[in-house]
Amino acid sequence: MTKVYKVNEIFYSLQGEGANAGTPAIFVRFAGCNLRCPFCDTVHEAAQAMSCADIIAAVSQWDATLVVLTGGEPTLQATPQLINALHEAGRTVAIETNGTRPVPAGCDWVTLSPKTDVCPGAAPILTECDELKIVFQGEVVPTYTDIRAKYRFLQPCDTGDSERNASLRDAAVRYCLAHPQWRLSVQLHKILNIP
Ligand code: SF4
What we know:
The chain is α/β, with parallel strands linked by helices. The protein has a single domain (5-191), classed as TIM Barrel (Alpha-Beta Barrel). It has 4 helices and 9 strands. It has helices at 52-59, 80-88, 162-178, 188-191; strands spanning 5-14, 24-30, 48-50, 66-70, 92-97, 109-112, 128-136, 148-156, 183-184. The longest helix is centred in the last third of the chain and has 17 residues, at 162-178. The mean pLDDT is 94. It binds iron/sulfur cluster. Iron/sulfur cluster binds at residues 33, 35-37, 40, 42, 71-73, 98, 115.
């Protein structure tokens, strides 16, 4: 039987966060998440049913090499078959996960953004990734020293309050300067108002 994926949206933009910030990318946003973070600002519940071939056809509208599987929580749905099909279509596959579930085989880049500090039961099971991204809310930074990562990013939380955001940004800058194994990640697409 043909596997059906519940896809919230597929769109083309610049990656706004982390080591690939500024890179043109095709985003496949899967519907649904296994966590309920209080600061979640991602609209991901609405879904359309798509086959692997439908997703490849949608992705093929754009020439960019990088495809980012996101959500929601993409590991609830992404499969090695889909990743293989994207590779056959000449794409590089990144996945953005909360780390509570195994990542499907074949991903070229894993962004792990654990939510242990805000969601009970959200401890990551992944022990390595390409980039670790912590959403900084002004509390003690959970450093996840047991997780191996090429890059460690601290990203100030977007609270919707400009004064609070400025305070978090300044505190995150201070933290990175004092702990140089961490880098600052900003949400470029929000700063530049890129859809
Ligand atoms: S893990 Fe991500 S998508 Fe899921 S609730 Fe938390 S912030 Fe939202």
